[in-house]
Design a protein that fits this description.
nine-stranded mixed beta sheet, globular, about 140 residues, 11 strands, L,D-transpeptidase catalytic domain-like, two-stranded antiparallel sheet
């Protein structure tokens, strides 16, 4: 089964922290993409529930293989909407999370942002190839 795994080390930092989004194929082959989640100085343990600033909460999600277009500043392009939406816990609520190219100011409002245009284009191409196999969504695992 195809799957995605996002890992990033949460820490106190005034600089943006980068992690890894890995696309894993059924044969075990993996392709790595540099990605981030959250804003600089909002990537500490516990910041996952800071709406609009912190990284995506750890857990298991689904991501569609086909994106849609968003004009939202910071995205301004294709957007793979992560579900469930919203994510609810005793700590708070996070909503409207997705995977997109990290446009404009580095960092995201909780989404997974791929940081290079080439990586983003290749990710979109690979997701389109998976969609062409008839696969509608992939599991996404977020680990810190």
């Amino acid at each position: 089964m195809h799957k995605l795994v996002f890992t990033m080390k949460l820490a106190q930092s005034l600089n943006l922290i980068y992690g890894n989004l890995q696309l894993i194929y059924p044969d075990g082959k993996a392709i790595d993409y540099t990605a981030t989640s959250g804003c600089a100085n909002w990537q500490r343990p516990g910041d996952e529930w800071a709406r609009g600033k912190g990284p995506i909460p750890a857990g298991e999600y689904q991501i569609p293989t086909e994106p849609y277009w968003l004009d939202t500043r910071g995205i301004e392009g294709l957007f793979f909407h992560i579900t469930p939406d919203p994510v609810v816990s005793i700590y708070g609520v996070r909503a409207e999370l997705g995977v997109h190219f990290d446009a404009n100011v580095p960092g995201t409002a909780g989404c997974l942002g791929l940081t290079t245009e080439l990586g983003w284009r290749r990710f979109c191409d690979r997701m389109a190839s998976i969609a062409n196999l008839g696969i509608k969504s992939l599991p996404l695992i977020v680990k810190y």
